Amino acid sequence: MPWLTLSVRAEANYAEALSEALLAHGALSVDMLDADADTPDEQAIFGEPGEPTSAVWQHNLVNALFENDADVAGILQASCDDIGLAALPEHRVETLEENDWVRLTQAQFDPIRISQRLWIVPTWHTPADPAAINIALDPGLAFGTGSHPTTRLCLRWLDENIKGGETVLDYGCGSGILAIAAMKLGAGSAVGVDVDAQAVKSSRDNAAANQVSADFFLPEGKVLDQHDVVVANILTNPLRALAPLLASATRSGGRIVLSGILAEQADDVMRIYAQWFDLAPAVLEDGWCCLSGMKR
């Protein structure tokens, strides 16, 4: 049976109210996404330390799912009336065909070759090169499958620079992929921090699947030790706010690796981190960049 999907562009002052109204009028499910994702206006709202946050993004995409015979136009009008919107916001309605969603989701994630010796292999695949360093990964609900340029950039840096025995901090660990890779590449220890409890759980599960010993935790009440390598693949705004914390977590002579940065944002981030680090030129891929440097 096909379904109907409604996608509405909604501003922060009414996005949550619209979501609740759509549910009240029969939507089967509703979610919200950042309408400015993957642009310089992308906004972090998940409580990074030192970063002002809000419950929703400034510009939102409210997505709702309905039975195929639902009067979606009428439901949207009634929902807007309920919350006092005089005019319908920008929106579109599409038909979503019935599918095996588990199979389709899995089909989106093939093994990814990061380097000559490093592969990311979804748990439902057999490694193409059993002799390689294969990271078995179940993405779950956390960011970090190896498919995004920022993750690949960080993985390549680790592959080229982990020599053995280093202590590694992965700040904003997502799926745990960077901490797990560091351990498989020879790091002495790795810890991961994330503000999302689901990410911490996914990281722990993925570490266990890879038979890797690494510690993952929420940041509340945890004092960060100094590390040989600190890697943070998050967003530019949190990276700006977290600069003093990440610098203090890097030992003198240690290395920092930063990504989640659009190419046009690199100079601004470099100016901030140059207070503590001697930075290498940015490495670019598909409009994203990775910065790295040594702490003075």
Automatic annotation (TrEMBL):
Keyword Ribonucleoprotein: yes
Enzyme Commission number(s): 2.1.1.-
Keywords: Cytoplasm, Methyltransferase, Ribonucleoprotein, Ribosomal protein, S-adenosyl-L-methionine, Transferase
GO molecular function, one term: protein-lysine N-methyltransferase activity
Binding site for S-adenosyl-L-methionine: 151, 172, 194, 233
Any one of the GO BP annotations: methylation
Enzymatic reactions: L-lysyl-[protein] + 3 S-adenosyl-L-methionine = N(6),N(6),N(6)-trimethyl-L-lysyl-[protein] + 3 S-adenosyl-L-homocysteine + 3 H(+)
GO CC annotations on file: cytosol; ribosome
CDD domains associated with the record: AdoMet_MTases
SUPFAM superfamilies: S-adenosyl-L-methionine-dependent methyltransferases
Keyword Ribosomal protein assigned: yes
Location of this chain's protein in the cell: Cytoplasm
Function comment: Methylates ribosomal protein L11.
NCBIfam families per UniProt: prmA
Family to which the UniProt record says this protein belongs: Belongs to the methyltransferase superfamily. PrmA family.
Identification of the protein by name: Ribosomal protein L11 methyltransferase
Organism expressing this protein natively: Sideroxydans lithotrophicus (strain ES-1)
Taxonomic lineage of the native organism: Bacteria, Pseudomonadati, Pseudomonadota, Betaproteobacteria, Nitrosomonadales
